[in-house]
Amino acid sequence: MKTIDVKQLQARIESGENINLLDVREPVEHEDFNIGGILLPLGDIRVGDTETIEHLKDQEVIIYCRSGNRSGQACMVLESLGFSNVINVTGGMLAWQDTFPG
Predict the structure, then answer these.
(1) Known catalytic residue: 65?
(2) Hey, how many other C-beta atoms are within 10 angstroms of the C-beta on 32?
(3) Is 4 strand, coil or helix?
(4) Catalytic residue chosen out of the listed positions 40, 65, 78, 89
(5) From CA 58, how far away is CA 14, in angstroms rounded?
C-alpha cells in the first residue's frame, strides 16, 4: 500500500495540484474538521457503496481518516474493487492537526 505523510500532502495541496481527497471518517468527524475531501465513510466502502467515486477508479486517490487505520482499510477494499492508485495518509487528521495546529 502506498502512503503519504501530512507534510508531503500539505505541500502538494499548497502547490495548487489537483488532488482527489477521500475522507473515510463518519459525517460528524468530517463536520468537525476536514481538509476538503469527499466524504465516504469506511462502512459504505466495505459494503461496496462506491458509486460516488467510481469516476476516480483510474486516478490517484489520497485517503484519510482520524489516525490512518480506517483509511488503510479503505485502501485495501478499494484496491480489491479495482481502484488502481490509492494512497493512505499516515497518521490521519490527528497527525495533520499536530503538524499544522490552528
Answers:
(1) yes
(2) 10
(3) strand
(4) 65
(5) 24
Tell me, what's the pLDDT at 102?
75
Q: What is the pLDDT of residue 40?
A: 98
Scan for cell 475522507, then name that residue: 23
Low-confidence ranges of the chain (pLDDT < 70): none
Angle at 76 (CA atoms; ends 11, 30), nearest 5 degrees: 55
Distance from chain centroid for Cα 44: 14
| Burial of residue 43, with CB atoms counted within 10 A of its CB: 0-12 exposed, 13-18 middle, 19 or more buried | exposed
Cβ-contact 24, 69 below 8 angstroms = no
What grid cell was written down for 4? 503519504
The three cell numbers locating residue 100: 499544522
In the chain the first and final C-alpha atoms are separated, in Å, by 30
What single letter denotes the amino acid at residue 68?
G
